[in-house]
């Protein structure tokens, strides 16, 4: 579709910032939303799309993906993603950041996360301000934590000055070592190298203390244990600017799933015990966790058809982010408005981008969603670059019917 | 089930076991986990005939004549490889050994490619050792023949557990204490965390009714090990009290110094099996070690060398090696029955309605 034409999506249920979705229509001109509500009608010459009573929602904003995999993102209703700095070469200089920031346009927007340290090795601060001006929307420690607390403090102070969120990975590397599982009955039975779940709480405790000292904004990309969530809840209670995210794997699965050594279940951080999985769901319900992201990391057989401990971590999650979040709505954990805050509004706000919410004047990133439509995940037929999903052959509910990025239809 | 029902000529051992393949309805032997107690006992019973054979001057039968067994060892091994090789040869099979250094076969496609290559050579059984937990299972999914796990990472080493059980049973019999493991107190002491021998033995001994205690310093004790129905101890002296069997594990001191324990000397101070310590166990307690031993570290020479003979002596360490060959013969012979189309075994394993 050409951008110039007006577009009106009628007869849908508009996802609101709060409360239940309400009947109405949305009208766009060019790449912007110009009107929405119960009384919006198409104008002459508009292309009109009948939503058929389905959800009209903001395009999803995915905070922390490892690959730009447009077909998978579009399938999943994702219109923007924050790219992790763990690329080859890493996003640790302005040139690579600038390239990454342009790499999806026009039909998909990439918001690069700048590497906190050169080469992501945790020792020398990278040129964060130059990268910000080249398009980085936040700073990230990548897949690993920064072991040196002095460097972490200096990073947080610097990023506080630049008003950039620091996105961290919460695992104390000294405790985790080469672990690939959580120390538990399961890891013991399987003989997998494992580390105590408290490695996460230790990392979170330190980073909260440092962020509080520095007055920095901290986002812990994946918080997966009850102990770490308690620390974050307490810090939020006393006004520390710390937020927490999670991926669906950690609220859908626990480490009992590892019984067959399936490498599609190898994640970093690893799957936790059932009590921690339930704590994650409780933290989503009470708002302690404010972001759900896909952690999209497509991995081919050369990385996954290996003995468990030798395989690379990660899952192709873009296509299942929406339906698995809809599970939480169906289970009564959160309402529909909260679901879209978790997968669109809040991540957009953390990145400081004008997206993730349906509002007049915003970019027309719009998803038409049937929240109940059933489908079955099939590892070998996925849109993603690789089919490494732990949910292969499982039924899902919730699917994107159409997707517009900046008023341009992409699905 | 009475003896008269044991009409199948191929359940050679007398015993209360289901007929034909129902006695051991598994395609391979990946671990003790997943075996029912009577399946463990079946393999032990099958091994008895091979213990007898191995004590004859002529130790060869032709049950596996014409079959090819490949020993694919992706991790260095002398004893286990030798034991499997002798077992295969005594059964009349053609045995081929493939030793691949761990470093050169690190990448997994290579591993799976290797598995498919072995499969294409139409092996009739493959024995695999690999440094990664779960690797043997991964390979077994890619090949058509039975796979025997000769040790995968820190996961399982099922033939070791079987040979240990057979050794204990022979010693009990020799001392006139019967056949049963029920109520027997077994202490497993050493690096439980990294030990596949410990895991397989815990599963097998608890399945057979023994009380198992595990003893290690905290850094070498796996999380929630008590969920495997064992009692953990940090204090070796306390663990030994009243024990009937003391199973020592090898301290991989070359890997461990300063990381898990301060020094081998200090390890011996707390966890070495000395004569004085052994006196804390039940009188005549049996001493075992999977080998190779670090004499003077986890076990003193004067303990290790008290070899049992005619019910006297406490050390079963060389006996374990002897039983190892018999147990591996039993495993190879049982797992190839389907391919050899033995009566009652010539049907799909894991048939529906049966236990898997």
UniProtKB/TrEMBL annotation, chain A:
The keyword Metal-binding does not apply. This is Amidohydrolase family protein. PANTHER family: ALLANTOINASE. Keywords: Pyrimidine biosynthesis. CDD domains: DHOase_IIa (cd01317). The keyword tRNA-binding does not apply. It comes from Novosphingobium ovatum. Residues 72-225 form the Dihydroorotase catalytic domain. Gene3D superfamilies: Metal-dependent hydrolases. It comes from the Bacteria. It holds the Pfam family DHOase.
């Amino acid at each position: 579709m050409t951008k110039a034409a007006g577009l009106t999506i009628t007869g849908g249920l508009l996802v609101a910032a709060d409360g239940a979705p309400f009947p109405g229509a949305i009208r766009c001109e060019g790449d912007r939303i110009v009107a929405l509500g119960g009384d919006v009608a198409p104008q002459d010459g508009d292309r009109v799309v009948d939503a058929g009573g389905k959800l009209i929602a903001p395009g999803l904003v995915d905070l922390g993906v490892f690959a730009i995999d447009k077909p998978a993102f579009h399938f999943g209703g994702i219109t923007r993603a924050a790219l992790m700095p763990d690329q080859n070469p890493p996003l640790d200089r302005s040139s690579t950041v600038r390239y990454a920031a342009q790499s999806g346009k026009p039909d998909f927007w990439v918001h690069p996360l700048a590497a906190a340290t050169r080469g992501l090795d945790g020792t020398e601060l990278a040129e964060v301000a130059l990268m910000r001006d080249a398009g980085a929307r936040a700073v990230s420690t990548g897949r690993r934590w920064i072991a040196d607390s002095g460097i972490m403090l200096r990073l947080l102070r610097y990023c506080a000055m630049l008003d950039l969120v620091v996105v961290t990975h919460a695992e104390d590397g000294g405790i985790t070592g080469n672990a690939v599982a959580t120390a538990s009955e399961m890891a013991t039975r399987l003989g997998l190298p494992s580390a105590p779940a408290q490695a996460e709480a230790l990392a979170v405790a330190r980073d909260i203390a440092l962020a509080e000292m520095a007055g920095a904004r901290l986002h812990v990309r994946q918080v997966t244990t009850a102990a770490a969530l308690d620390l974050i809840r307490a810090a939020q209670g006393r006004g520390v600017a710390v937020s927490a995210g999670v991926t669906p794997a950690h609220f859908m699965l626990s480490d009992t799933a590892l019984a067959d050594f399936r490498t599609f279940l190898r994640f970093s951080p690893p799957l936790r015990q059932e009590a921690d999985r339930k704590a994650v769901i409780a933290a989503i319900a009470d708002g302690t966790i404010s972001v759900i992201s896909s952690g999209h990391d497509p991995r081919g057989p050369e990385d996954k058809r290996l003995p468990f401990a030798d395989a690379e971590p990660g899952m192709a999650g873009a296509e299942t982010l929406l339906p698995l979040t809809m599970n939480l709505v169906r289970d009564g954990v959160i309402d529909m408005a909260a679901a879209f805050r978790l997968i669109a509004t809040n991540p957009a706000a953390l990145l400081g981008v004008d997206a993730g919410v349906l509002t007049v004047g915003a970019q027309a990133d719009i998803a038409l969603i049937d929240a109940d439509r059933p489908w079955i995940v099939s590892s070998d037929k996925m849109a993603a670059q690789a089919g490494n999903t732990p949910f292969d052959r499982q039924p899902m509910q919730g699917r994107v019917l159409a997707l517009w990025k900046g008023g341009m239809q992409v699905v | 089930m009475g003896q008269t029902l044991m009409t199948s000529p191929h359940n050679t051992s007398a015993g209360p076991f289901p007929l034909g393949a129902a006695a051991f309805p598994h395609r391979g032997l990946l671990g003790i986990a997943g075996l029912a107690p009577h399946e463990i006992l079946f393999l032990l019973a099958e091994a008895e005939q091979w213990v007898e054979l191995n004590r004859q001057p002529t130790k060869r039968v032709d049950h596996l004549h014409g079959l090819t067994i490949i020993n694919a060892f992706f991790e260095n091994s002398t004893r286990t490889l030798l034991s499997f090789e002798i077992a295969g040869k005594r059964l009349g099979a053609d045995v081929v050994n493939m030793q691949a250094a761990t470093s050169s076969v690190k990448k997994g496609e290579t591993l799976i490619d290797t598995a498919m290559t072995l499969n294409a050579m139409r092996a009739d059984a493959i024995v695999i050792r690999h440094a990664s937990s779960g690797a043997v299972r991964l390979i077994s999914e890619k090949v058509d023949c039975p796979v025997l796990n000769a040790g995968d990472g820190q996961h399982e080493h099922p033939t070791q557990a079987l040979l240990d059980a057979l050794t204990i049973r022979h010693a009990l019999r020799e001392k006139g204490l019967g056949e049963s493991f029920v109520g027997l107190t077994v202490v497993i002491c050493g690096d439980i965390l990294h030990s596949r021998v410990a895991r397989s033995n815990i599963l097998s001994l608890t399945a057979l009714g023994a009380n198992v205690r595990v003893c290690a310093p905290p850094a070498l004790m796996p999380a929630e090990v008590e969920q495997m129905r064992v009692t953990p101890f940090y204090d070796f002296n306390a663990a030994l009290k009243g024990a009937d069997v003391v199973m020592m594990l090898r301290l991989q001191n070359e890997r461990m110094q300063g990381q898990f324990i301060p020094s081998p000397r200090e390890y011996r101070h707390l966890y070495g099996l000395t004569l004085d310590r052994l006196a804390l166990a039940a009188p005549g307690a049996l001493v075992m070690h999977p080998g190779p031993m670090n004499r003077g570290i986890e076990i003193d020479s004067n303990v290790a060398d008290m070899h049992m003979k005619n019910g006297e002596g406490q050390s079963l360490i060389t006996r374990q090696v002897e039983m190892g060959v018999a147990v591996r013969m039993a495993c190879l012979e049982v797992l190839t029955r389907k391919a050899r189309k033995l009566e009652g075994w010539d049907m799909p394993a894991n048939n529906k309605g049966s236990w898997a």
